[in-house]
Design a protein that fits this description.
It is a single chain. This protein is mainly alpha-helical. It has three domains: about 70 residues; about 160 residues, no CATH class; about 350 residues, no CATH class. Helix content is about 70%, strand content about 5%. A hairpin with a 2-residue loop joins strand 1 and strand 2. Helix 15 packs across helix 19, helix 19 packs across helix 21 and helix 20 runs antiparallel to helix 21.
């Protein structure tokens, strides 16, 4: 206004006026770079002729400066926040990650750190010293990821795994894990982070740790399948404590308690009975020797699991296979008993016992059995130092092992049935599902399913109630042949039992002594197959009474007690003489006699237990009488039923 009101005209004044109008028009619009530049130029022209007073010009310049600042704010902020300098200070990154891991509270700031690292990329795209800037970007990406893995992700994985292991194994009393004493890091913060974007990938810490744990647990379960339960617990704990969604490994794919499969044992029963030792009380088979550091065992649970896998039909097949095996073994047994050297010695021993039994209080002399045991070695020994009696003892042990296996099959079958039938509420009153389904008028498929269920329940209850007596079957099938007149040579068996028990006790003591030695070849702590075999064969021959008439175990007990008393007496005499060496010898003798007596006692108990399975209280004649009485009772009861049923129906009359 002031310039216009001035009436003096000049070209210079016109230029100033034009510049001011231009500045005014330019300012009335968006504050772009060009407009601000034009305003600046226009004002430099417009202020030439002292158009503005000083106090007017300063505020205007201040406002224009502020306008510049606001207009360039984004660019200025970007320039100030550009972190491309980090490219030259990459050594800071690992230290930063270590700090984040140690404190575990600023984990959310990782996003900002990676944003800062991404600022280096635009500058790197202008690199000219390589054929392609992509090579530089690739190296940069690789380096950053390696540092991240080493200083954060791998540490995190190891720490989480360690924490899960220690939590699951608290019963082992490992390290002190009291958080008030050793401190505590809450690593769960890392798993609440959103995935971090870096180059063309997303870094998901939660997914990375989950994958690591899944892989580790799976691999370790495949190596030691028996640890599957521990790793399942650790998976559940990872979900509860850290919110990780773990993958189920589905290992093992079968029941681990299977042990050796019944089917495999059945096919190779001859190998099984020679390689495994039976324990009568625990009903367990233990491997004799193994190249591994551990021995395999087979118990009722293993057998029950096998039966559940293959069905109860396998039980009868197994007993059939055992029968075939026993046939072959009894053929060898008969040959040994028929051998002239053996038969003549046994007949001589029977005659000798009959002559001296009145003088010996009806007890078979220990010396006679010992003489037989030693004398048989003269007939020859095998390359590995075994006499014929040793081999005969092994044969009887194998027969006993086969019987132990049959017993285990029956127990396993009952175990399997009982675990299957435990879901039936009342065995006495089982409803008929087929009838119920028909009443409801359900579909044909449902009726078929109900029929199937009824038949399964029927099978289960029948199997559970009966439980086939396989021992009785295996006695009945062989007994007639054993007791027939053409096999009279087998009747001498009872007299060979004393030397056999002597041989067994010697073998058992040597096996147990090997347990304490460094080389444990041939070591064993149980072999009840022998007692089972002796009890079974005595039953087949119906010779329990003949064997009991020898009073063999009483004779052994008396012999050892007499020797122990004699040694104790000598010890008392020698203790006054102060002869150390002699005393030591006597102590060893005393200990050896006690060990022998203990072994005989154990054998006696095992044999007594085994005899119970074969009803040792009854002779063959008494059993036959009992059988006849049962048959007569059943006939009478059936006759009674018929007579009581007759008058009910006049048509039948």
């Amino acid at each position: 206004k002031r310039v216009i009101s001035d009436k003096k005209y000049s070209e210079q004044r016109l230029d100033v006026l034009s510049a001011l109008v231009l500045a005014e028009n330019t300012l009335n619009g968006p504050s772009t770079k060009q407009r601000r530049l034009i305003v600046s130029l226009a004002l430099s022209v417009g202020t030439q002729m002292k158009t503005f007073k000083d106090e007017e010009l300063v505020p205007l310049q201040l406002v224009l400066k502020k306008l510049d600042l606001i207009s360039e704010l984004t660019e200025r902020v970007q320039a100030q926040c550009d972190c491309c300098f980090l490219y030259w200070h990459r050594a800071v990154f690992p230290i930063y990650l270590d700090d984040v891991y140690e404190n575990a509270v600023d984990s959310a700031r990782l996003h900002y750190m990676f944003s800062a690292l991404r600022d280096c990329v635009p500058a790197m795209m202008h690199a000219r010293h390589l054929e392609s800037y992509e090579m530089l970007l690739e190296c940069y990406d690789k380096e950053i990821m390696e540092v991240l893995n080493e200083h954060l992700l791998d540490k995190l994985c190891k720490e989480i795994e360690k924490d899960l292991r220690l939590s699951v194994h608290t019963h082992l009393k490992l390290d002190d894990r009291n958080p008030f004493r050793v401190g505590m890091k809450d690593l769960a913060h890392f798993f609440f982070l959103n995935p971090i974007r870096f180059f063309n990938r997303f870094i998901d810490i939660k997914a990375y740790v989950t994958h690591y744990l899944d892989k580790t647990f799976y691999n370790l379960t495949t190596v030691a399948l028996h640890d599957w339960a521990t790793y399942s617990e650790m998976r559940n704990l990872a979900t509860q404590r850290y919110g990780l969604s773990m993958t189920e490994a589905h290992l093992p794919s079968q029941t681990l308690e299977q042990g050796l499969d019944v089917l495999e044992i059945m096919r190779n029963i001859h190998v099984f009975v020679s390689r495994y030792l039976y324990n009568l009380n625990n009903q367990i088979f233990i491997e004799r020797t193994s190249n591994n550091k551990h021995l395999n065992t087979i118990n009722i649970r293993h057998v029950a699991n096998s039966i559940r896998t293959h069905g109860t039909g396998i039980m009868n097949t197994t007993v059939n296979f055992t029968y075939q095996f026993l046939r072959k073994k009894f053929y060898i047994f008969s040959q040994f008993m028929y051998d002239e050297h053996i038969k003549s010695r046994l007949i001589k021993d029977i005659r000798f016992f009959r002559e001296v039994k009145d003088q010996n209080d009806h007890k078979y002399p220990f010396e006679r059995a010992d003489k037989f045991n030693r004398g048989i070695r003269k007939l020859g020994i095998t390359p590995d130092g075994q006499s014929y009696l040793d081999q005969f003892r092994q044969l009887i042990s194998q027969i006993g092992n086969a019987m132990g296996y049959v017993r285990m099959i029956r127990s396993g079958g009952l175990h399997c049935c009982s675990s299957a039938i435990r879901f039936v509420p009342d065995l006495e009153d089982i409803v008929n599902f087929e009838e119920l389904v028909k009443e409801e008028g359900l579909s044909e498929e449902t009726q078929k399913a109900a029929r199937q269920l009824d038949s399964v329940l029927g099978d289960l209850t029948r199997n559970f109630a009966e439980g086939t007596e396989y021992f009785k079957m295996l006695v009945d099938v062989f007994a007639p042949e054993f007791r027939s007149p053409k096999n009279m040579h087998l009747r001498n068996f009872y007299i060979i039992v004393p030397p056999l028990t002597l041989n067994f006790v010697e073998h058992s003591i040597s096996c147990k002594e090997k347990l304490n030695k460094k080389n444990k070849s041939g070591a064993a702590f149980t072999d009840d197959g022998f007692a089972m075999g002796v009890a079974y064969i005595l039953k087949l021959l119906d010779q329990y009474q003949e064997f009991d008439s020898l009073h063999w175990f009483q004779s052994v007990r008396e012999k050892y007690m007499k020797e122990i008393r004699a040694v104790a007496k000598q010890q008392n005499v020698q203790s006054t003489n102060q002869d150390e060496k002699l005393l030591q010898t006597m102590n060893l003798t005393h200990k050896r006699l006690e060990v022998c007596l203990q072994e005989f006692e154990l054998l006696y108990f095992s044999l007594s237990s085994a005899r119970i399975f074969f009803r040792a209280d009854k002779t063959a004649a008494e059993e036959n009488q009992e059988k006849k009485e049962k048959e007569e009772d059943s006939v009478k009861s059936s006759d009674g039923d018929l007579s009581s049923a007759a008058p009910a129906d006049p048509g039948v009359k």
